[in-house]
Specification:
Largest sheet of chain C: 5 strands, antiparallel
Oligomer: heterotrimer
Number of strands of chain B: 6
Mean pLDDT of chain C: 95
Bound molecules: FE2/S2 (inorganic) cluster
Structural class of chain B: alpha+beta
Radius of gyration of chain B: 17 Å
Order of helices and strands of chain C: EHEHEEEHHHHHHEEHEEEEEEEHH
Helix content of chain B: 25-40%
Strand order of the largest sheet of chain C: 4-5-10-6-7
Radius of gyration of chain C: 19 Å
Order of helices and strands of chain B: EEEHEEEHHHH
Low-confidence stretches of chain C: none
CATH class of the largest domain in chain C: Alpha Beta
Largest sheet of chain B: 5 strands, mixed
Distance between the termini of chain B: 51 Å
CATH topology of the largest domain in chain C: Uridine Diphospho-n-acetylenolpyruvylglucosamine Reductase, domain 3
CATH architecture of the largest domain in chain B: Roll
CATH superfamily of the largest domain in chain B: Beta-grasp domain
Shape of chain C: globular
Strand order of the largest sheet of chain B: 3-2-6-4-5
CATH architecture of the largest domain in chain C: 2-Layer Sandwich
Strand content of chain B: 15-25%
Mean pLDDT of chain B: 96
Chains: A alpha+beta (about 1000), B alpha+beta (about 170), C alpha+beta (about 270)
Number of strands of chain C: 14
């Protein structure tokens, strides 16, 4: 039985440490360069270093992998392909029931750009990379799908046979009577949304160090993994060992995660497999190009959302149709992004009738995983854009529509139609305070004034419920009730914390919360200090996790904003248990009742007679030194581990109602933005964000979470997109193309708080870290829509895209002047055509096109041309533009030959920097003067490394190559050099791959 | 003329935070890797290796330098300052570092070393910067955690404190 | 993401640089500030056999006014030029454009000539060189030559520099009392330009130079135009530049910027 203990603090009277913005214990080391991140820690002597060769193709069969040259490079210990990995592992589990495998490395097919194809293990990273360049992989490309709706049309290329039509899951839900509500409502509004792909991409990349003890068949892994530790079971299973033979540890510091470092787990499997195969410890630090291309991404989603609406703006029913794009593999815990918000699909609103269709599709893009906001940004973008559309449609103020629909202040705890139990809040009060303190009236006046001057100024609003502490059972909502019955119940969210006292009575706390920079150690020291009447500096907190020694559960880790609500509360429970026992011990020593004991100022004392006291450390040490002198019923005080799981987190019920999260904070944002008339850049004039996250444990850190989330959300709204071409090429592979906000883009948001404690958590706290990632993108979009008066807004708000929305017809080119250059279609293929005069007769030119010797002499950088057949050539080419050089192997075949008039060329080139393929048509005609008029058209595409890091410069360089080749060909034919662009698919193909958009 | 052969390791000597250091490196070894993995000065971090994130920023001969865009061989004989050289002593933080701690200007701390180096370098030359100047300076760094504004606040506070303490000493 | 292997030569004299270039030709690269080249090496986009470090050559560091020109050596860093006391007066256009080059942390190492050698069509220094009509000094073991800015840039990342030539320096004309204006639009501050424009009042009228749109920066001279004549000229120019789409901007958006910013800047310098 837990004894009630009272505590107070020394130094500051009775004011508790919790709730104060004390300086962080983490900071001194981090500021002095003494952090201990994974790549800062030493490794065992003899540790090898891995690099990963990745697919340049979005979708292709692997025909062969030649690793001989790589293996024989000095310093290389092993080169592993899918076959080698398969020999020592099994497939990762897949989140839905389907006959589909999910390997961390390609087996016989690649399904996204960046998918691992081989692992090179060598004495250092540079040598491993040297060797990786020598691996020769032959691919046969397949058609790719990148768009979630395109993936499910019939005839689309299929990624996995076990997901027919690329559909991994299709579930429909119905709550209340949505059909009736839609039939009877006077208004219906609908919105189509495409939410883009992006990632919170932390500044520290993934890292793994793994070793294998063959004698015990046990793995030891150090990785900057962040949880959830349900993934531990996935890794152990893939490595074919029971959980107790996979010791997973995390380093003391981690350079941010925001969910993303959950995605390191497939690499844990790969590197552990490499350690097992080589018999040596293996280390891998992901580089930034790998990270952007292939680590993990948030899901992109196509949503159609409709609402049945009363004349006063009251929403009577919602109809969701969500098509979730999880990328090439459905990796655990996906499709969790889609179901994390299931209980919250009505947002902050009282809407009783809901219809949902959820489809999960696979496409040729990087597999998705955890990302801050996890499902929230996608849902709220649709819901809150729709609320604005409703207001416009009904000629109401958007804020009035929000207010009309907010859940009533007296209705908490409130059960949503889809099953969430909203713990506490007063949304009306929060909105009222934000409107007042954030000076909405004045902001509106600013808008009026700006508009009067002809400026583009808009205001946006958002109301959002921020869920935290995930129910480990929510993901089973993807299964039918019958399937769930078969699989057994999943629910809850076990949090753990351990409080220990050592022989001198100093206090240590261990938790499995795996912080990624959020200052957990500081907050826990405050929480525990309050219980023991000590100061935070007296408490040492260790947040490294070691699955072989620490208390943990599948719910452990740093995700779903569970720290303040669950972990900190559990630490409090553990500390209180110890304190209860200490009180009994002290009571017997002080000859008072235990109920009379108070912990204060480093002493355990009698409340009634504070002079009657004993030093905390003395009581605390007693279990070590003199267990025999403890009162019988007290028990030990050496170490206490508390486990806590909230009873509210029940499994989905028979009607698919699910309380997907324990806590629900409330956010109300509004903002004013101005759009520059010339550049169409968005400037945030004021951003107001009101939060009710329950009890605040450390105001400085709460504001830090809000600012950080806001900055990431601003990036998602204005700058960031993992962009893919239609052929699946990845286009934003450097930090010069995937644009993160910097100091010049991020203003200070005006932050306001309200504290409505959660009745469901030990400290009354709720999560706060993800909210602005949910609210801010749509709030900014609403403001931009208001400024521009447009209905359809797609993120990110790229100025050039806004230009298409708001600018009328463009002034045409002057007559007879230049016309638009060969504009690349949305599919990024390069198309062109042209005509030129050559001095030889058509027969002569024809012969040259088919002659290896001529080709060799006119193709820049061509080392040799082999004639495989009369119409099939193969060439080795070294090409460079500026300093960018690469070696390529090119294959060209000729079709539809009609000598000496027309021919079709088809070819491809591959090299370390990428690949190209193209088709072209040549027509030769006599020009009447003994020469030839050569007409050509081509259609080319490039992919691989160079597409993702150098897309910006591709087109211009292509034309340069074409020109170079044709000049040479014409000269060879006796011409005086060609005018303008010439033609050579052959050279084009090869050289296309050699380009790069360098940044300073 | 000094020509270093590709596959051999060559001696690299320089002064690191006032102390002479020496080790060997192949010509291709980056300064960031040399500092971290050869010399054990792991306070300088690596976030992109293409010059964008700023995490690796150090000072070489008085110049702000991306150590990921610099070869170890290039700094032979130079004077380097890194984050390890900022604190007045192992158990004390400098004015700028303290301002960071006070303002919660770091969360994970991965970007922090580079940002501190830029600020330390800049404030010593521009003791009374405006917010706009600090924002311009720090636009060459990416921090994914803090949203930047506490960093800017810390920088301005540190600048004020440094100038006032300088005034006091010169008045005294 | 580690560089491939190469030899490293720390040149003790310009002669050694030229010797190295002569011997290794296309397989040698000059290492100056390294702000473009090192990133390419890390990504293994470039595979030189030899890097020639010129940054210890004092004789290449010059920034000097000689009569009506300013001479800038191959080793002069962007930050050196920004800090040059005569910059604003002698080269007002450069003083406007240079702060847009990268960030303080890259300008401190990056060189003026390195940026020109890299010939990125969106970079500011090539634009300034073309706008001002400067010259590039090239040198190999056998000869020295000068080449006009407009002939130096041959295409994206391509210049008229032969493989065995060192860019020894450049000269920029000092245009007395010239009215100049510069504006750049990028996704974020410090990014390569989507469009960068420089305008200058000339004796005959006005010059507008545009970077970020065509393969190379391009300058155009007009007599003093206004009203629809100016609009037409700008529209024709915008179309002639052959703008294209990429992930950051569309061709049309680029043309819009040329038309709008061009008009503003010309207005500024003619005012
Ligand atoms: S690691 Fe050097 S700038 Fe990012
Ligand atoms: S504190 Fe984490 S990246 Fe800046």
């Amino acid at each position: 039985m837990l004894q009630a203990v009272t505590s107070a603090n020394r130094e500051s009277g009775d004011q508790p440490w919790v709730g104060r913005s004390i300086e962080r214990v983490e900071d001194a080391a981090l500021l002095a360069g003494r952090g201990r991140f994974i790549d800062d820690l030493g490794v065992a002597p003899g540790t090898l270093h891995a690099t990963i060769l990745r697919s340049p193709h979005a979708h292709a069969d692997i025909l062969s992998i030649d690793v001989d040259a790589a293996k024989s490079l000095p310093g290389v210990a092993a080169v592993l392909t899918g076959t080698d990995v398969k020999a020592v592992t099994t497939s990762l589990v897949v989140g839905v029931k389907a006959p589909v495998e999910c390997w961390p490395i390609a087996m016989d097919r690649v399904r996204y750009v960046g998918e691992p194809v081989a692992i090179v293990v060598a004495i250092d990273r540079a040598r491993a990379e040297d060797a990786a360049e020598l691996i020769n992989v032959e691919y046969r490309p397949r058609g790719a799908v990148v768009d979630p709706l395109g993936a499910i049309v019939s005839g689309a290329p299929v990624l996995h046979d076990g997901f027919p039509g690329n559909l991994a899951s299709d579930r429909s839900f119905r709550y209340g009577d949505p059909e009736k509500a839609f039939a009877e409502a006077p208004h219906r509004f609908s919105i189509d949304i495409r939410y883009p792909r992006n990632s919170c991409t932390p500044i520290e990349t993934y890292g793994v160090v793994a070793s294998h003890d063959a004698g015990e068949d046990a793995f030891e892994v150090l990785a900057n993994f962040q949880g959830p530790f349900s993934i531990h079971t996935v890794i152990a299973r893939a490595l074919k060992v029971p959980g107790n033979r996979l010791r997973l540890r995390t380093p003391p510091d981690s350079g941010g995660s925001f969910g993303v470092k959950q995605g390191v787990f497939p690499y844990i499997v790969l590197i552990a497999a490499a350690a097992r195969i080589t018999g040596r410890p293996v280390k891998w630090i992901e580089d930034r190009l790998e990270h952007l291309t292939a680590s993990v991404s948030a899901t992109n989603r196509a949503t159609t959302l409709s609402a049945a609406v009363a004349a006063d703006g009251k929403i009577l029913a919602l109809d969701w149709d969500q098509v979730e794009d999880c990328g090439a593999h459905l990796r655990a815990p996906e499709p969790a992004t889609l179901y994390r918000m299931h209980g919250n699909l009505t947002g902050a609103y009282d809407i009783r009738n809901v219809k949902i269709r959820n489809r999960v599709v696979v496409t040729n893009k990087t597999p998705t995983g955890l990302n801050r906001g996890f499902g929230g940004p996608q849902v709220y973008f649709a819901l809150e854009r729709l609320v604005q559309r409703i207001a416009i449609g009904l000629r109401l103020d958007p804020l009035d529509v929000i207010k009309r629909n907010l859940i009533g202040a007296g209705s908490f705890p409130y059960r949503t139609a889809t099953g969430a139990l909203l713990d506490s809040g007063n949304y009306q009060e929060a909105v009222a305070r934000a409107v007042e303190h954030g000076r909405l009236a004045e902001l509106k006046a600013r808008r009026d004034e700006a508009r009067a001057q002809g400026r583009l100024y808009g205001i946006g609003f958002t109301a959002v419920v921020e869920p935290s502490v995930s129910n480990m059972g929510y993901i089973t909502t993807v299964l039918t009730a019958a399937e769930r019955r078969k699989a057994g119940p999943k629910n809850g969210a076990q949090a753990t914390a351990t409080v220990g006292l050592d022989p001198v009575g100093s206090v240590t706390v261990h938790v499995a919360s795996v912080p990624q920079g959020q200052g957990h150690r500081t907050v826990l020291s405050q929480v525990v200090a309050d219980v023991f009447g000590l100061a935070p500096k007296d408490i040492r907190v260790n947040t490294e996790i070691d699955t072989a020694k620490d208390a943990w559960s599948i719910a452990s880790g740093n995700y779903a904003s569970r720290f303040a609500a669950a972990v900190a509360g559990t630490a409090k429970i553990a500390a209180e248990r110890v304190a209860g026992r200490l009180a009994r011990i002290a009571a017997s020593q002080l000859n008072v009742e235990a109920a009379d004991i108070v912990f204060a100022k480093g002493f355990v004392a009698s409340k009634r007679n504070p002079e009657n006291r004993i030093a905390f450390s003395r009581v605390a040490a007693l279990s070590h030194w003199s267990p025999g002198s403890l009162p019988d019923e007290a028990g030990q005080t050496i170490r206490e581990t508390a486990f806590w799981t909230p009873p509210e987190l029940t499994p989905p019920d028979e009607d698919d109602r699910i309380n997907s999260s324990l806590c629900h904070g409330f956010i109300f944002d509004f903002c004013g933005v101005e759009i520059d008339r010339v550049t169409l850049g968005t400037r945030i004039d004021r951003y107001v964000t009101m939060h009710d996250c329950g009890t605040i444990l450390h105001p400085g850190m709460v504001n830090g979470q809000i600012r950080g989330g806001f900055a990431q959300a601003l990036g998602a709204a204005l700058l960031e997109e993992y962009a893919y071409a239609e052929d699946g090429s990845f286009l934003t592979g450097t930090l010069a193309d995937y644009l993160l906000p910097t100091t010049t883009e991020v203003p200070e948001p005006e932050i306001f708080h309200m504290e409505t404690p959660s009745p469901f958590t030990p400290l009354g706290a709720k999560g706060v870290g993800e909210g602005n990632c949910m609210s801010t993108p749509v709030c900014l979009a609403n403001a931009v829509a208001d400024a521009l008066g447009v209905a359809d807004i797609t993120l990110p708000l790229v100025p050039a895209r806004l230009a298409e929305l708001v600018r009328g017809a463009e002034p045409p080119p002057p007559a007879g002047g230049a016309s638009a250059a060969a504009v690349r279609g949305g599919d990024r293929r390069l198309r062109g055509e042209g005509q030129t005069a050559v001095k030889g007769a058509p027969e002569q030119v024809w012969a040259m096109l088919l002659d290896p010797a001529t080709l060799q002499s006119v193709i820049p950088g061509c080392q040799r041309v082999d004639k495989i057949t009369e119409t099939h050539f193969r060439a080795d080419v070294t090409l460079g533009i500026g300093p960018v050089t690469g070696r390529y192997r090119a294959d060209v075949e000729l079709f539809d030959l009609d000598a000496p008039r027309t021919a079709t060329l088809r070819g491809r080139a591959t090299g370390a920097l990428g690949f190209g393929n193209a088709e072209g048509r040549i027509m030769l005609a006599p020009d009447g003067n003994g020469g030839t008029t050569l007409t050509y058209s081509y259609d080319a595409a490039i992919g691989g490394k160079v597409a993702s890091i150098g897309g910006r410069l591709l087109d211009g360089a292509t034309r340069v190559i074409i020109g170079q080749f044709f000049t040479a060909l014409a000269r060879k034919a006796g011409g005086g050099g060609a005018e303008g662009a010439g033609f050579s698919l052959f050279a084009l193909l090869a050289k296309l791959g050699s380009l790069f958009g360098g940044r300073r | 003329m000094t020509r270093l052969k590709a596959d051999q390791r060559h001696a690299v000597r320089f002064s690191l935070n006032g102390k002479p250091v020496e080790d060997e490196a192949e010509p291709r070894m980056l300064l960031s890797d040399f500092l971290r993995h050869q010399l054990g000065a792991t306070g300088t971090h690596v976030g992109c290796e293409h010059g964008v994130c700023g995490a690796c920023t150090v000072v070489v001969d008085g110049m702000l330098t991306r150590s990921c865009l610099t070869l170890a061989a290039q700094v032979d004989g130079c004077e380097l300052k890194t984050v390890e050289g900022l604190a007045p002593s192992a158990d004390r933080l400098g004015v700028l570092q303290q301002a960071f701690r006070r303002n919660h200007a770091l969360q994970c701390g991965f970007c922090t070393a580079g940002i501190l180096m830029s600020l330390d370098h800049y404030l010593s030359r521009h003791p009374t910067p405006s917010e706009a100047e600090i924002r311009d300076l720090l636009s060459g760094h990416i921090c994914r955690c803090t949203g930047y504004t506490p960093i800017i606040q810390a920088a301005l506070e540190a600048a004020a404190e440094l100038t006032s303490s300088k005034k006091e000493t010169s008045n005294a | 993401m580690k560089p491939p292997t190469f030899d490293y030569l720390r040149a003790g004299s310009v002669g050694e640089v030229l010797e190295g270039l002569a011997q290794q030709g296309g397989d040698a690269r000059i290492l100056a500030g390294g702000q473009s080249l090192m990133a390419m090496l890390n990504m293994r986009l470039a595979k030189p056999k030899l890097l020639i470090d010129i940054m210890r050559l004092e004789e290449l560091r010059q920034i000097e006014r000689k009569g009506d020109t300013v001479i800038i050596g191959a080793g002069a860093r962007q930050a050196d030029l920004l800090a040059w006391p005569e910059l604003a007066e002698a080269l007002p256009l450069v003083s406007l454009a240079l702060p847009w080059v990268g960030h303080m942390q890259t300008r401190s190492r990056g060189t003026i000539c390195g940026s020109l050698a890299h010939a990125d069509p969106s970079a500011e220094m090539p634009l300034a060189l073309v706008a001002l009509g400067g010259e590039v000094f090239l040198r190999n073991t056998r000869r020295r030559r000068r080449i006009a800015a407009k002939d130096f840039f041959a295409g994206m990342m391509l210049t008229a520099r032969a493989e065995d030539e060192l860019i020894e320096g450049i000269s920029l004309p000092v245009v007395k009392g010239a009215r100049v204006a510069f504006r750049e639009v990028a996704r974020r501050h410090g990014d390569f330009a989507i469009v960068a424009c420089a305008a200058m009042k000339t004796q005959a009228g006005v010059r507008l130079a545009v970077g970020g749109v065509a393969d190379v920066p391009i300058a155009r001279d007009w007599p003093e135009l206004e009203g629809t004549a100016l609009d037409d000229a700008l529209n024709a120019f915008a179309w002639e530049l052959g703008a294209r789409d990429d992930v950051h901007a569309t061709a049309r958006y680029r043309r819009d910027l040329v038309r709008m910013i061009g008009r503003d800047l010309i207005g500024e310098v003619l005012q």
